[in-house]
Amino acid sequence: MDLERQLREALRAGDPGPGFTARVEARLAQRPAMQVTGPTPASRTGLRAWTLPASIAATLLFATVTVLHVEQRREQQRVAAAQSQLILALDITSRRLEAVHHSLETRLSEESP
Amino acid sequence: MSPAPSTVRNAQPVPSCPEATPAADPERWLCAAREGNAQAFVQLVRAEQGRVFSIALRMVGRRDDAEEIAQDVFLQLHGMLDRIESASHLRHWLLRAVSHRAIDALRRRSRQPRLVAEAEGAIVAVPEDGADHLLHRRLAALLLQLPETARAVVVLRFQEDLDPLDIAAVLALPLNTVKSHLRRSLEWLRQQALETEDGS
Asked: What is the ipTM of this complex?
């Protein structure tokens, strides 16, 4: 059997049947006008020309705002931590001073007749 | 043929395109279609629909799926006519588009193809007198059992008569891969066809 000849005969191109072209036309007609007619090459090129830089600029802007926001939050957290440490230190100092004051008063009262 | 829908770019004489020759002139149709002539695009579809539909049908095995793929290819073509440079470029683009769409469609299918039933639909050409119809049906059915890339290689080789170098360009495969697919597929098809003959 000449397989290659048989394959060529078996695989001869056929026709999709009547109405195929009309169905393609109908689907073209169903598409939105912009898709059917398509932008002119110049406008299409123009569209591509600003779409990419605009996307990059928007991404950079978003990234910058996000980084600034995160930095601001960290700074606020640092200030709050410093404030609480200061308050704690003042509290400790105040208690020590009070203790010293109390011991002085006690000693003075013992020494006085 | 009904006139083209009005939403398709209007059909106007295209002075920059060459005059039509009495015979079919894909170069002129392409030129006119690029410049907005809807009837020229219709002529292109008519000229190429058999090739595109047949490849899709032999790849996917079902007429409705094949028609959808073929229609999608022509819709895609309509949107990028300005990038098609010549009739030979058009043919190469169509073969590439339909092959890849068919392979993608096959890969999306999770189940096995219904081989025998689909092979009935895969016979698209009217057989010549004296042709072995049963053998042709059997070959079409066997073709549907090949892996999708090997199937595309065989279809492009024996329907479109492309040489392995062109098939490699169309399918974006290394030349040796194409040759390997072709050799193994032919061996397998021959073996299967002979087994069928012995069995009958």
From this structure: 0.73
